[in-house]
Design goal:
By secondary structure, this protein is an all-alpha fold. The protein is built from 8 helices and no strands. Helix 2 packs antiparallel against helix 3 and helix 3 crosses helix 4.
Length: 198
């Protein structure tokens, strides 16, 4: 039996057709494309960063950059990607990595980020006053994983993509995706032994 993703599937509107219309200057088509992909990309960014507000900014950056790519003059190499979904997911993960780097630089120059014991990834707690759902706890722990493990785990375990699809999105071999997902799950189990099965 196929594993069901935790989130609903993406809309079935033809992303490639909308992107082609947008490349021809159709802003309404680009608006439809943004509405189609906004939630799926936001989920990826939120699970990567652990921050809802930053994730909104990341997705906006991705959409602005994609619009520029689509509307570049042909002489500058404007082209509609063959797999719009893979392109947008990869762009979102790249933007998340950039966000992580900027955050690390800020932390270096402005001292360490204040420690909040209530959000300690090593000891996730669920008190009655401020109860954290399993998914929120899981997303918080995923945000603490090494950069190379986050993308494969988010796309496979939480977004419901197959390993072959994830390999295309990330430019990895299927074996590498499988190994990274297994490593990420192993690290999560160490931090949260009672985690729900991914």
């Amino acid at each position: 039996m196929a594993k069901r993703p935790l989130d609903p599937p993406e809309p079935v509107t033809d992303s490639l057709a909308l992107a082609a219309q947008a490349a021809a200057g159709d802003k309404a088509a680009y608006g439809a494309l943004m509405r189609q992909w906004q939630q799926p990309l936001w989920r990826i960014a939120k699970r990567y960063t652990g921050d809802a507000g930053e994730s909104e900014d990341i997705v906006q950056e991705v959409f602005v950059a994609f619009w520029r790519t689509l509307t570049k003059p042909e002489t500058e190499g404007s082209a509609v990607p063959r797999d719009v979904g893979a392109f947008l997911r990869r762009a979102t993960l790249n933007a998340c990595r950039d966000w992580s780097r900027r955050r690390a630089v800020r932390a270096f120059f402005f001292s360490a980020i204040p420690f909040d014991p209530a959000r300690d990834p090593a000891t996730p707690q669920q008190d009655t006053a401020n109860q954290t759902t399993d998914l929120e706890t899981l997303e918080h722990l995923i945000a603490q994983l090494p950069t190379g493990l986050k993308g494969p785990l988010i796309l496979c375990a939480l977004e419901g993509l197959g390993q072959k699809e994830v390999a295309v999105v990330l430019g990895l071999s299927q074996k590498a995706v499988e190994a990274r997902v297994a490593r990420a799950k192993q690290m999560l189990r160490k931090k949260w032994p009672i985690a729900p099965t991914l």
